[in-house]
Amino acid sequence: MLVKLAGSALVIGATSTVGWQVANLYARRPVHLRDLQVGLAVLQTEIDYGATPLPQALAAAADAAGGPVGEILRAAATELHVGEGTTAAEALRRATAQKGGATALVRPDLEVLGALAAVLGCSDRLDQVRHLRLAQERLCGEEQRAQEARSRYERMARYIGVLTGTALVLILL
Amino acid sequence: MADSPLPVELRPFLPASVRTLLESAATAATGLEEVRLREGRPLQVVCHGMDAFISPQGRLTQRADLAYRPDQAELQRTFQAMARGSVYAWEDEIRGGFLTLPGGHRVGLAGRVVTEEGRIRTIKQVGSLNLRVAREVTGCATPLIAQLCAGDRLPSTLIISPPQAGKTTLLRDLIRQISAGVESMGLRGRKVGVVDERSELAACAAGIPTRDLGPRTDVLDNCPKAEGMMLLIRSMSPAVVAIDEIGRPADAQAALEAVHAGVVLLATAHGADLAGVMKRPAMAELFHAGLFERAVLISRRRGPGTLERVIDLSGGGERIAG
Q: CA–CA separation, B168 vs B189, rounded Å?
């Protein structure tokens, strides 16, 4: 009996953890999207008003964004700073590939960064500001969708985790 | 001129394919002066004033049809790398048609120009890159100093030559020697102020010269010449002010003020001969005011920096250089 009880607790514990993790992803995505928008807004200011070279501008954006999203921007800044001869596109793409996994951002969010990477640093200030604004608008749209998904699925994911475990235990017993 | 292949600091900026070709051709291409990349057109180098194309096997050739042709991706990547991923941070330079790389090497740009109200706003699609390799030739100004200086007296001097004849290299060594002083000629070291508008003379990194300009030299990096000259005179009290490529009316005006403030001026100008330079409106005023005491003509007859003539403009006639 004791073994059955312990087994049941283990099964419910495991499925609840999975449910909790999925719910956590729903909860963190809008936060990370918000952080990324803050980072890009700072990047825009640095480029527009300061004409700051990209390694320093990206570092300032990384400080403003903070968290795992800031780490993407910081990795891109470091890559540009250390590797002379690296283009902005290569640096940001590599940084996104390396550090994107640690965030709750999903493919459409990372695609916005990918599209920005293709043009970042490639043109004059006016054009850069346009591209950065566009990226922020697209991220804002993704954030709204992420908020809706969060309100719809966050709690549900937690319940499903616990309920799946309970159902499994009932079937197995 | 010191022979050397592709300078180390230039390597990261060039696409791997072009770098490999240049390095394999480097043994033949000693004294590399220029590398010219043109999208879809033959890869060209200039060594010792002679130009050649580079074949896909890395050999120098005179036949354009056998040459390697860099594609659009290679050219754009090179341009992006040279702009250090920040084209917007070099808007003024790009508008002026050039970028300066670490080490003072200069890249000329050509392509599709975007204009706004009749003025250049930027170069959008860069189709040609001309990489000019900067050289530091220590001691190349010694014969010139021997002719310029009578004892400790240093005259205001204009160095004239067509492009690529070694004006900047000569001026750099002249600054270094004047700053350090030349004991054997009785010339004591002087405080020198350099306005390095294009970062070519001193090749500053974060305001610190990476080229040797002597112990008594202060550099205003990336500063417009006209403003920089007066700023230096007010703030650093130089005895000598040096500028590269004087020519705009504002430069000439500032040069006049500088000399009236009691400093010796060293400058360079593009031109085939003295008469040609004197015809340029802004320069004519300077000659009329008797600003320069000596004009130095150089050519590349016996290699870059060949001293042709030193002309005494203070009324003492002309001297022919050995």
A: 21
